[in-house]
Structures are given as structure tokens and as C-alpha cells.
Design goal:
The chain is of the alpha+beta class and 860 residues long. It is 34% helix and 23% strand. It contains 25 helices and 35 strands. Strands 8, 9, 10, 11, 12, 13 and 16 form a 7-stranded mixed beta sheet that branches. Strands 26, 27, 28, 29, 30 and 31 form a 6-stranded mixed beta sheet that branches. Strand 3 (149-159) and strand 4 form a beta hairpin. Helix 2 (50-68) packs across helix 18 (654-662). The longest helix has 19 residues, at 50-68. It is globular, with a radius of gyration of 34 Å. The structure holds one RNA strand of 86 nucleotides.
Length: 860
RNA sequence: GCGGACGUGGCGAAAUUGGUAGACGCACGGGACUUAAAAUCCCUCGCCCUUUGGGUAUGCGGGUUCAAGUCCCGCCGUCCGCACCA
């Protein structure tokens, strides 16, 4: 009689077989068509979480499916192993970042193996090992040699207590997230990669990425931020000149002031002699940079007393201000203000009582005295602008640029929001930057034969700061050029560099170089890349840049690294918490005599394992202690709403977990974890198993079942399309339908054949179950190596269809007819329908619409 | 503020080019089997009504059409990205 599918036993057995036979090792020399399926490699933070499970299951289904359809599939896995959490762990727990990272890798690798992913572990890599980052150093120096790397002073967020540089995200309310110390802006010499050289390419290259989500392309487009306009100089009354950039040269006759950034050289120079200017600059720098602060921050300006001469009218002078809203980092750090047509300029001009002059009008309203309460930035005709009058905006822009270029005082130019990529990190746990600083020779690349520059592991974290900086021996080396005393660069590379080329290293990993070009080009670009949308900008942009840079210097002839991109949703879970209101009293900042009471609430979070639900409420298990049910949020350690995949896998088996994360929610949307959901998946695995197991009882069944044959072939084709389209939830639904049909069907040869085919259909999703059934059914070889079933096109179409019979667009009945029934016949059937007759009540229809094989609509 | 996405039963969701709304799953309810339970199987399941039938229904209000979840216009709401970008 029917047995149970023993997932634990079966999972282990088949995982061992796949391992021993190296079933999923990709062959570089294969004659088959190649497919490179890649999921974003994990950071080894400790244990895998459900997000990883979902991500890797999706890629796995596609990889296994492509194998079955005759592809040589590269589906590798590795570790994005450098980064700050390792250093934080080192400081908190006194462990070595390397030891901590490698332990985590071992744990997480075992967890991934437990899920039976079809990964080529022979290509496993960890970015923290010299045999990876050494090649990265060589690539970095290659870019250096080609002028794509440079060094420049740049300001950073410096935590004076931890003696380290902080990323913007690590600065909270102006304080270091860990130390709580007030963060300083500090100028440091840092290494930059010239990503801006590729700004145009990276932008235009997006068009060719047909298999990328529009959303991600748009985000990258906005991030690159291309603006076209005019750059020109205003001559100043003090004899100087200020360059400005504008996207609206057409409004040049509406100018009423020039404004420069607080850190603009003009402001700095004035500050030297005028303390009032210095005070104003200091005031500007005080303001926070958070979104909320910027929103409410008042526009502040300081009239320098200098005036600027209008380029089209030497007699026209406008004032030059220092203004807090002008950014030094964008454009030229100076703008001219057109209050009538720019809201920000409007606010500024209103405050400082500067003229607001209309130069773009809608219709015939060309009154130069602008009275509306806000700036007008819409379309219109130029007015009050001398030679531009009557032109539309675009013509006027061209006309002004033309005159500026002819007159030699300005030129059309393009400005990008994208900045060069600063890659220096004052951190230990990263790729050492392979540069040696010599007082005589400057920054000298480490010679190729001295690579890799190995990160020393004999370091301690008992003193704040970068341990490389105080390492007794590692830091001091002779200069490769003059052999004099020199120092190693102690900064390490941003970990985004590590992840900018790992997909190339997966494709080809010779020991003597980063990759073999010919082999890498066989596999690249990645056919399908899958990962979280949080990487939509930085990682994906950097990887695109790195690949283009390699192409530019002739190392690899691939422009875009990822032909297909899919961003999957998060795995979420309810949160459970108890809120405690904390009241604190402190003297008011405005008036120290007054005591202010501040209340804030602190949440204590509870793990789902501590909670039981009763009558829609949540209680701590075994008690009447009620806790609040919070929002459904991304599983995170801080909210304690995580579910450890390993416990679930041990309880239900790998296939049930895989099935669950593919079910129900469309993969791009968030998936809410639920206990009943995983139980449902487990029940399905058992139902399928009973079908497989029952084959022996119906072995002798004979006869065909045309309806079932059709269902089977429609399912084969449907699932194939769904997997190719990464619509796993739909593939899952189709499998449920087929299983429902098989359970209901009477024994027949068709049914037996369909059940055997079902093994192949579930194989990408539930591979352990499929292998087990495949073996018991007496098939030779592994189902992992089997071919995807052929579809009989004749069975894809039904010979009967159900048509809708409508009156005035409302469904009144349905009728099953032979497929392809003629329009006239359908009309006759519909008009003869009892319901139709009753509704028409003898009246003649005004019109009859017939859509063959679909419906008849009678317009009464 | 700018840009984008989304809005369908109690819940997750399906629904080719506009053509039978709610496939499939979860939950709930009823039943069978069982001494009992688990497991399994069967049935019901958008809402409303005068229930072999009818009305109504895809955030709200309009429109186009024989026909609208799908197309157009205007609102409302939720989420995401960017943000003083010149």
C-alpha cells in the first residue's frame, strides 16, 4: 500500500549522488548550447535566510530546466566574503574576521547543499582569498595603467572615536552609528575609478537590455542623470568670471541673480577677507543633509556685493549671491536664477526681493511682471527676450547655445549626476589596494610578480582604527622603482569591486590570471541573473562599468555582463512586539531653565517561535501574555521575524521548502512565510509521491485517455513557458491542476504515461522526489540528466470548446461546441438557447456578434 | 517636489491581442472513513435576493465599445526609487 515519501533519507541520498558524480559541473568544452544562470552570491553573514532560499531556488529551477532542454548550464556559487560585518564581529566577539568569515562560509555551504541546489561547486570562490583578490589587484592595476584609476582629495565621514571612515548610511543624525561620536568631514586622498568616462555608454547601453525590468533601467537612468544644456561664464564686477551650467538657456533673459555654492572658490576667497562671509559659509555647512531637513530648510543667500554682466547686454548687471541650495558637486557649483520659471529660484527671489521676470508664456499673456504665486516651468513661447521672442523653448535653447558658441563665451555641454566611483576604504577586511607610496616616486603600482599583495592575518582589533595602518612589518616595503623606503597603501578596495567581476571569474578561473578571455567569452554574458532589487543601482552599475572598462582596455569583448535580470521580492513575516514608552526629561535647548519631557517608544520584538496565535491574537507560547502583531516585514534579525530555513528543511524536506518558496506569490513580489503554506507544500509532495507509488498497482492498465493526454501536453508546454518566463507561481498552479486531473482519472495507459512524465515536470522544482521516483520506476541514469518531455502540438488544442452565450454583454449560458464551429452555426445555437429565447421574448435581435471558439453576444 | 509601480474574495493570487472574472493554493465550514485521533478522500465557499432563476462585483467617478480587471480622462490610496541636480 501507499508509502510515505521519506524526504530526509531521499534528500541526503540524492545530494550525495549528485556530488559524487559531479552532475552539475559545467564543461567549458561542451558542444551543447550554453546557458549561464547566476544568482547574486551571498555575503557570508552567518546562516542562510529564507531570502537566499527563494533566490537560489528560482535560479535552480531555471538551471535544472535548461539542463533538461539540452543546455550546458553554468550555475555557480561563491561568497562575497569581504566586508564590515566581519570586522564588527571581530571587535564585538574578539574573533578574527577571516576565521569568522570562513566558519560562516562552511555553515552556509552546508545549508545550501541541504537544499539540493544544482550548483557547480567546483567553481566555488570566496573573494577574501588571495587566489581571488590577487587577480582583482592585477585588474585594478590594468585599469590604472589605462588611466581609469586616479587619486584625489575627497571629503569623507570620519568617526574620530572608531578612527574610521563611515559610509553615509552609517551616519545617523550626524553621529557614528557605532561610537555615537560626532562625525567630522575630513579630506583624505582616495582612489577613484573613472566611471564617469562611461556615463554615456552606461546610459545608452540600457536600451539594449531587453530582458531587464524597466524599473531597474529607469533607476539607473536617473542615477546617471544626464542633463544637456549650456555652460558659460559671467564676467564679474571684481574682474573675475564665474562659470555656470543651465539646462534652460532659453530663459537667460529671465535671469535675476547668480548664486554660487558655499564651498565655491569665489566664496572661499571672499571669506578670507570678510568674516561675515566666513560666518555665512559656516552656517550653510551646519544644515543636515537628511531628506526631511532639506525639505524644510530655508533658502539662504548672502549678497556678495559683486555683480555679473548679462552676456547679451553689457549694461545689465545682476547680483551674485552665495546660496545654501547650490551644490558644489553638481555642474560648476554655480547657477543663474530665473525666478519666474524655477520654483527654487522663485522662493529665493521672493525672499530677497529680486525681480521675477516672465520669459515663457502660455498663450498671449506676456506681461513681464509675474504675479502668480509660483514659478511656471511648463511649455510655452518665449517672450520679453529680444531675439528669442516667439520661439518655442527648444528652438530658443538651440539659438542661445549657438550664439554663445559663436561669441566664444559658452558652449553646449552635458552634465551627469553620476560621480566617479571612490573605491578607497579605510578598512582592514578587504582587498589591499596594490599601490606603494614612495616619497620620491609617488604612487607606484605593485609589480606583477609581487602580486598578490596578501592581506596579513596577524592583526588585532583591540585598538580602534585600521590595523593595516599600524602593522609593524607589512606596511613598510622598498619602493619598486627606486628601492628607497616606501609604504604600502593601507586602504582596501570597496567590496563592490569584488562583486564587479566575480561572474567572469566563475566562467573562467585559471590560476595565473583573472580569467581566460576565450573561455569567459564562451559563457558570458550571464543569461539570467537573479537577485534582490536593493542592488538595482550600485552593484549592477558597477558590474556594468567594470565589464565595459575591461572591454575598453581590450581584455574582454563583452559589453553588458547580464543579458537577463530578474529582481525577486523579499520573504516577509508578521512581526510580534511589545511596546514600552520611555519618558526622558532634559533641559530645553532654547531655554535651559525649562525642562522638556520627551517620550519615545521602545519595541521588544519576539520571534515567531515564541508565539502562538489564538482567536486572532498573539500570545507567548503557553501563557496568556498577549503581544502585539506588527506589520508584515522583510525577515530581519532586528525585528526577530526570521525563520531559519534549516529547521524547516529538516522538518519538511528540501522539496517542500523549494515548492513553497515558488508557490503562490509572483516571484517579483514579496512572499509571506506561513506555517500553513509550508504544510500545504508538504502535502503536495506526498500527493505526488502517492501517484508515483501507485504506478505499480496500475501497471497493467490499458487504453487511452484523450482528455488526460491533452491536459498533460498542455501542462508540459505551459510549464516550459512559465519557467522560461520565471513565472514559477503559474507553473506551480499548472502542476496542481495536472495532479488533480491525474488523481481523478481512471487507470489507463495514458494515465500511467502521464504519471511517468510528471516525474520530469516536477524535477526542476522537487528534484529529490523526482530522482527517487525515477529510480524506483526503473529508469536508467539520473532524472537530472534526463530530457524535458516532448510536446505533441496536436494535443495542445482542444477539439471542443465552451462558448459563452451573452445577451447585451451579460453571460446567459454556456454551450460546448466542436472547435472551429462556423459563425452561422454558432449564431443559430445561441438564438435557439432557452435562456436567450426567454430574455428576447420574441423580439428580434438588433445585432449578433460572433467570436468563433469564444462567444456569441446578442444585442437586443 | 520629481519619477515609477501597484490596487481583483477572509488571505496569496490567475485571467493571450478587450471576449465566460476569481484558475490554483491557503484558511473557514459540512460530510465520509475511524472506538477515537492523525492521515486521506468528497462537497460548499465573492456579495445580495423572492435561489432549476436573478441582481451585483476587479480602489472611486466618468468615458470609448456589442463587450472593459484589461483602453482613455479625472480622483483616492499603498509601496518603491531619487531628491535643493541648476
Amino acid at each position: 500500500m501507499a508509502s510515505r515519501f521519506n524526504a530526509l533519507k531521499s534528500d541526503a541520498a540524492w545530494q550525495q549522488v549528485w556530488d559524487e558524480r559531479r552532475t552539475f559541473a559545467a564543461r567549458d568544452d561542451s558542444d551543447k548550447p550554453r546557458t549561464y544562470v547566476l544568482e547574486m552570491f551571498p555575503y557570508p553573514s552567518g546562516r542562510i535566510h529564507m531570502g537566499h532560499v527563494r533566490n537560489y531556488t528560482m535560479g535552480d529551477v531555471l538551471a535544472r530546466y535548461r539542463r533538461m532542454t539540452g543546455h550546458e548550464v553554468l550555475h555557480p556559487m561563491g561568497w562575497d566574503a569581504f566586508g564590515m560585518p566581519a570586522e564588527n564581529a571581530a571587535m564585538e566577539k574578539g574573533v578574527h574576521p577571516g576565521g569568522w568569515t570562513r566558519d560562516n562560509i562552511a555553515t552556509m555551504k552546508a545549508q545550501l547543499k541541504r537544499l539540493g541546489f544544482a550548483l557547480d561547486w567546483t567553481r566555488e570562490l570566496a573573494t577574501c582569498e588571495p587566489d581571488y583578490y590577487g587577480h582583482e589587484q592585477a585588474l585594478f592595476l590594468e585599469l590604472f595603467r589605462h588611466g581609469l584609476v586616479y587619486r584625489k582629495e575627497s571629503s569623507v565621514n570620519w568617526d574620530p572615536v572608531d578612527m574610521t571612515v563611515l559610509a553615509n548610511e552609517q551616519v545617523i543624525d550626524g553621529r557614528g552609528w557605532r561610537s555615537g561620536a560626532l562625525v567630522e568631514r575630513r579630506k583624505l586622498s582616495q582612489w577613484f575609478l573613472k566611471i564617469t568616462d562611461f556615463a554615456d555608454e552606461l546610459l545608452s547601453g540600457l536600451d539594449a537590455l531587453e530582458h531587464w525590468p524597466d524599473k531597474v533601467k529607469l533607476m539607473q537612468e536617473n542615477w546617471i542623470g544626464k542633463s544637456q544644456g549650456l555652460q558659460f561664464g559671467w564676467s564679474l564686477s571684481d574682474g573675475g568670471n564665474v562659470e555656470v551650467f543651465t539646462t534652460r538657456p532659453d530663459t537667460i533673459f529671465g535671469a535675476s541673480f547668480v548664486a554660487v555654492a558655499a564651498d565655491h572658490p569665489i566664496a572661499a576667497k571672499l571669506a578670507e577677507s570678510d568674516p561675515a562671509v566666513a560666518d555665512f559659509i559656516a552656517l550653510c555647512k551646519q544644515g543636515g543633509t537628511t531628506a526631511a531637513e532639506l525639505e524644510t530648510q530655508e533658502k539662504l543667500g548672502f549678497d556678495t556685493g559683486i555683480t555679473a554682466t548679462h552676456p547679451f547686454d553689457p549694461a545689465w548687471q545682476i547680483p551674485v549671491y552665495i546660496a545654501n541650495f547650490v551644490l558644489m558637486e553638481y555642474g560648476t557649483g554655480a547657477v543663474f536664477g530665473v525666478p519666474a520659471h524655477d520654483q527654487r529660484d522663485f522662493e529665493f527671489a521672493s525672499k530677497y526681493r529680486l525681480p521675477i521676470r516672465r520669459v515663457v508664456s502660455e498663450g498671449d499673456d506676456t506681461d513681464p511682471d509675474f504675479t502668480a504665486g509660483e514659478a511656471y516651468s511648463g511649455p510655452g513661447t518665449i517672450c520679453n527676450s529680444h531675439f528669442l521672442d516667439g520661439m518655442d523653448i527648444e528652438d530658443a535653447k538651440r539659438a542661445v547655445i549657438q550664439r554663445a558658441e559663436d561669441g566664444g563665451w559658452g558652449k553646449g555641454s552635458t552634465v551627469f549626476r553620476l560621480r566617479d566611483w571612490g573605491v578607497s576604504r579605510q578598512r582592514y577586511w578587504g582587498t589591499p589596494i596594490p599601490i606603494i607610496h614612495c616619497d620620491a616616486c609617488g604612487a607606484v603600482p605593485v609589480p606583477a610578480d609581487q602580486l598578490p599583495v596578501v592581506l596579513p592575518e596577524d592583526v588585532s582589533f583591540d585598538v580602534p582604527g585600521n590595523p593595516l595602518d599600524r602593522h609593524p612589518t607589512w606596511k613598510h616595503v622598498p619602493c619598486p622603482t627606486c628601492a628607497g623606503n616606501a609604504r604600502r597603501e593601507t586602504d582596501t578596495l570597496d567590496t563592490f569591486v569584488d562583486s564587479s567581476w566575480y561572474f567572469i571569474r566563475f566562467a573562467s578561473q585559471p590560476s595565473d590570471k583573472a580569467f581566460d578571455r576565450a573561455v569567459a567569452e564562451k559563457w558570458l554574458p550571464v543569461a539570467q541573473y537573479i537577485g534582490g532589487v536593493e542592488h538595482a543601482i550600485l552593484h549592477l552599475l558597477y558590474a556594468r562599468f567594470w565589464t565595459r572598462a575591461l572591454k575598453h582596455i581590450g581584455m574582454l569583448d563583452i559589453a553588458e555582463p547580464f543579458a537577463g535580470l530578474f529582481t525577486q521580492g523579499m520573504v516577509t513575516h508578521e512581526t510580534y512586539y511589545r511596546a514600552k514608552v520611555i519618558r526622558t526629561e532634559r533641559p530645553s535647548t532654547a531655554d535651559p531653565e525649562t525642562i522638556v519631557t520627551e517620550s519615545s517608544s521602545i519595541q521588544t520584538w519576539f520571534s515567531p517561535t515564541e508565539i502562538e496565535r489564538r482567536d486572532g491574537k498573539a500570545f507567548l507560547i503557553g501563557t496568556d501574555d498577549e503581544v502585539k502583531v506588527g506589520r508584515i516585514e522583510k525577515m530581519s534579525k532586528s525585528k526577530k521575524n526570521t525563520v531559519d530555513p534549516t529547521h524547516i528543511v529538516d522538518q519538511y524536506g528540501a522539496d517542500a521548502v523549494r515548492w513553497f518558496v515558488l508557490s503562490d506569490s509572483p516571484p517579483e513580489r514579496d512572499l509571506e512565510w506561513s506555517e500553513s503554506g509550508i504544510e500545504g507544500s508538504w502535502r503536495f509532495v506526498q500527493r505526488v509521491w502517492r501517484l508515483f507509488d501507485g504506478l505499480t498497482e496500475t501497471a497493467g492498465a490499458e487504453g487511452g485517455d484523450k482528455a488526460l493526454d491533452r491536459k498533460l501536453h498542455q501542462t508540459i508546454a505551459g510549464i516550459a513557458a512559465d519557467i522560461e518566463g520565471l513565472a514559477f507561481n503559474k507553473a506551480v498552479a499548472k502542476l496542481y491542476e495536472l495532479v488533480n486531473a491525474l488523481e481523478r482519472a481512471a487507470p489507463s495507459a495514458s494515465r500511467n504515461a502521464a504519471i511517468r512524465t510528471l516525474m520530469l515536470l516536477v524535477a526542476p522544482m522537487a528534484p529529490h522526489l523526482a530522482e527517487e521516483a525515477w529510480a524506483i520506476a526503473g529508469n536508467a541514469g539520473l532524472i537530472a540528466d534526463a530530457a524535458w518531455p516532448e510536446v505533441d502540438p496536436a494535443l495542445l488544442v482542444d477539439d471542443e470548446v465552451t462558448i459563452a452565450i451573452q445577451v447585451n454583454g451579460k453571460l446567459r449560458d454556456t454551450q460546448t461546441v466542436a472547435k472551429g464551429t462556423a459563425r452561422e452555426a454558432l449564431e443559430t445555437i445561441a438564438l435557439a438557447n432557452a435562456n436567450v429565447q426567454r430574455i428576447l421574448d420574441g423580439a428580434a435581435p438588433r445585432k449578433v456578434i460572433v467570436v468563433p471558439d469564444r462567444l456569441v453576444n446578442i444585442v437586443a
